[in-house]
Amino acid sequence: MRSIRAALLAAIFAPAVLAVAGPAAGAQNPFTSPEDIQLGRQLYELDCANCHGGDARGGRGPDLTRGTFRHATNDEQLFQVVRFGIPGTEMPRRVRTDPRAWRVVAYLRSLGSDGEIPPGDPQRGREIFFGSGTCSTCHVVDGQGTMQGPDLTTIGYQRSLDHLRTSLLEPDSELDPRWWGAQVETLDGAQASGYLLGNDLHTVRLLDIEGNLLSFPKASLARFEPEKTSRMPSFDGMLSPEDIDNMIAYLASLRGEATQ
Amino acid sequence: MRRLTLLPCLLFAACEVTESVPGSADAPGAGPGVTAGVIGPAGEPVTAERLVNAAAEPENWLMYSGDYTSQRYSTLDQIDRTNVADLRVEWVHQFTTLSRVETTPIVVDGLMIITESPSNIIALDAVTGRPFWRYDHPVNEDDLRLCCGLNNRGVAVLGNRIFHGTVDAHLMALDLNTGTVLWDVEVARAEAGYSITSAPLVVGDKVITGMAGGEYGVRGFLDAYDVETGELVWRYYTIPGPGEPGNETWSGDSWRTGGAPTWVTGSYDPELNLIYWGTGNPAPDWNGDMRLGDNLWSDAVVAVDADTGELVWGFQFTPHDTHDWDAIQIPVLADLEVDGVLRKLLFWANRNAFYYVLDRETGQFLHGVPFAEQTWAQGLDPNGRPILVEDMDPTEDGVVVSPTIGGATNWNSPSYSRLSGLFYTYALDGATIYYKRDDEYVEGDQFTGGYGQNADDPENFFAAIRALDPMTGALQWEYPIATQGSRPGILTTAGGLVFSGSGDGYIFALDQDTGESLWYLSVGRAVHAAPITYSVDGRQYMSVAASGSLFTFALP
After folding, report:
1. What is the dihedral of CA B250, B252, B257, B263, to 10 degrees?
2. Please, which pLDDT band fits residue B1 given cuts at 50, 70 and 90?
3. Which of A45, A88, A90 lies closest to B451 in CB terms?
4. Given the DSSP bridges, would you call strands B311-316 and B462-468 parallel, antiparallel or unpaired?
5. Do B435 and B286 form a contact (C-beta atoms < 8 A)?
6. Using the beta-carbon criterion (under 8 Å), do B440 and A3 form an inter-chain contact?
7. Which of B410, B370, B146, B155 is nearest to B278 (CA)?
């Protein structure tokens, strides 16, 4: 290979270039083949990886592997962000042609749910979720359940099957800091624990198990122990391999259609 | 003090304010109108001589780093360790953009000049924070090539003019009182990868500007323009051309696209008539195979004759850099005794995690030690050249190296206090996985040859304000700050204080000797700028930008 860039240039300028102003609202991505995704990955590494990381898990810029984006809810909006940047932020106008931007979009989309068909039974998974698995005591789907842990209404859209499996079996791996916990004890002996909502130079903020928001000046604390582990137990051994598959099938089916 | 008491109505605005302001001059936040202040330019102009003696007028902040030594130390002492806890917000200026704010204000006799993304200027009353005028620089973002945002760090001043570099690589002179553009020159072609984000430096009758573009395969340079006409007086290329010493440190034609930009303001020694300026990474950043050799003068400090632009000496911190460790830190000048002899020294905490002491007359390396976590060098040899650890260059599969891409420190200003005798710097202990990729130079495209990503959750890194013995680099104390989003500059004062900020949105004051926190305020957004101090009518102020706003403080 002469160079990545030469190969990309050859591949990218072959198709007809789309309108300069970008596609119409709701446009579909015309570049979604496996080859496009591979080219998109190479373009990503050249134009995006410095801020968002080589695996797109974030760095100076946000994590792009979650399947949801703060500034885009569909492919067309994601294209706009990739192609033109986000005014008023550090996200620059970087990817310089429409086909390039579409291929980056295709690559980013490939990082979330990949459309694979999971082997399990989603209906059986749903029964476990709201029944014996007691998942809904901490999670919400379509407004049902308790909002302690992450809302899973669109999790099937955001996560690959591998990621869902890892989350069920090894909940401590790749845990988003939003779900870290902490225990504190004040100088006068009061104790509290919960999700660690904030930890900075001078304050600690928690959401406790009862849903109370607590805020402490660090100077008032005798003890502060962040817990960078998940509050969720591992289901490895708690559920049969079949039921793990069923859970994954159910979670993968959650794509927010009920609420959109 | 050059703030005058207004008797005749010299300015319409001042007269109107005088008539309409209720209350007494002692009221909190009382403006200049109350005491009928005429803002400085109506007084004496800033001369080249005043710039040389800037440290002698601490009521003003006359250039990016305070004075030509770039110590960012002020002799103002009204705010001190005993009363800093009473510091309160005097006024807030809100910027019109959400972009990061990296500006260092200039204060001239009660007039403050600040800059705003992408390349705008605002002139305001330093006592009240109310604006006099603003200049909005038109940019076409399609023509811009910026690695790291639409940033600007400030302006320079001389006479009735301010000088301003822009993201589209222009240098301008504007009238100090009105913002009227007096001249405007294209320093380089923006679409070819050039930009200016740093404040210029006025030396004599010339305005010196650096440029950015190290991620676009530019050829770095330093320019001097005539302050009156905007004509180019000299250009010094940081990468020597064919036939010039150092060109042989670039394989093939790689010198043409070798980077080494000059994107942060330098310092000046009037006695030696030398300008000291840091240079950035060689291009492409992470693929050194395309530019074999030491790549002079990338990642270096160059000492350039202010009259001619000729290189007098250079010292390269990171030969053949493959980790993007730009040496664009502020050159801090100080005169201290070495073995009983007063020497002209240069202090430098580098992005590559080493702290250096150089003789600034000759460029001789005197001392160097790590001041932050590093895994790439076993140490420095007697000439200051790093003794490399093997296999630390980026690869296809990635190599973990400390410091991070962002570095152990970066462009954010350190400070040297003449009171405490300590050198203060931001420092980050962290690691990056560095990847190498093939690349090819295409004008205006990124030319980086790889990338990097955090080797760990940044929450597990460690960041601090560190106080070093400037002669040995030995750590005296450290004050932990947020590991993410911190790019704070540092100010020290004769009040025994160290002012700085943090990525989690705090501004604070520390005891210069112990690092003890004496005062802080949550300002809500990351501090990417350096604090300054000034005084008007005998009252000391401290100003610092925190992303969307500029905050100014004073004692009640």
Report:
1. 10
2. very low
3. A45
4. unpaired
5. yes
6. yes
7. B410
Cβ-Cβ contacts under 8 Å, B442 against chain A: 5
Interface list for chain A against chain B, based on CB atoms closer than 8 Å = 1, 3-6, 45-47, 49-50, 53-55, 57, 59-60, 85, 88-90, 92-94, 96, 177, 200-203, 228
How many A-B residue pairs are in contact by the CB < 8 A criterion?
81
Task: Summarize pLDDT for B422-468 with one digit per residue, the tens.
Answer: 999 999 999 999 999 999 999 999 999 999 999 998 889 999 999 99
Which segments of chain A belong to CATH 2.30.30.100?
177-227
Q: Which of 2.40.50.140, 2.30.30.100, 3.40.1190.10, 1.10.1040.10 would CATH assign to domain A177-227?
A: 2.30.30.100
What are the chain A neighbours of B435 within 8 Å (beta carbons)? 45, 49, 54
Residue B386 has pLDDT above 90, yes or no: yes
Strands B274-278 and B267-269: antiparallel
Contact B454 A53 (CB under 8 A): yes
Contacts of A228 in chain B (CB under 8 A): 459
CA distances (Å), origin A164, targets A54, A136, A184, B245, B295 = 21, 16, 31, 59, 48
Q: Which of B197, B396, B399, B451 to mutate to test the interface with A (most CBs of A within 10 A)?
A: B451
CATH assignment of A122-174+233-259?
1.10.760.10
ipTM over 0.90: no
Q: Which two tokens stand for residue B465?
A: 């304000």
Which one of B67, B294, B324, B393 is the catalytic residue? B324
pLDDT category of residue A91 using cuts at 50, 70 and 90: confident
The CA distance from B204 to the nearest CA of chain A, in Å, is 36
pLDDT (mean) for B100-116: 96
CA–CA dist B157, B175 (Å, integer): 10
Say yes or no for a CB contact (<8 Å) between A47 and B446.
yes
Decide if B124 touches A, using CB distance below 8 A.
Answer: no
Q: Look up residue B376 and give its two tokens.
A: 């790439």
Domains annotated for chain B, with CATH where assigned, are 4-554 (2.140.10.10)
- Reported as type and span, the H/E element at residue A38 is helix A34-47
For residues B171 and B230, give the distance between their C-alpha atoms in angstroms, rounded to a whole number.
8
Average pLDDT over residues A141-169: 85
CB B322 within 8 A of CB B378: no
The string of DSSP codes covering A54-75 is TTSS-SSSPP--SS-BTTBSSH
Query: In whole numbers, what is the pLDDT of chain B averaged over residues?
Result: 92
Is B136 annotated as catalytic?
Answer: no
Partner residue facing A59 (CB), from B446, B454, B502? B454
What is d(CA A70, CA A62) in angstroms, rounded to the nearest whole number? 9
Cα–Cα–Cα angle for A78, A80, A85, rounded to 5 degrees: 100
- In A, which residues are within 8 Å of B445 by CB distance? 5, 96
Question: Of B532, B528, B555, B550, whose CA–CA distance to B542 is shortest?
Answer: B532
CATH class entry, domain A4-111: mainly alpha
Q: What is the pLDDT of residue B27?
A: 41
pLDDT, tens only, B310-367 = 999 999 999 999 999 999 999 999 999 999 999 999 999 999 999 999 999 999 999 9
The average pLDDT across B470-475 equals 98
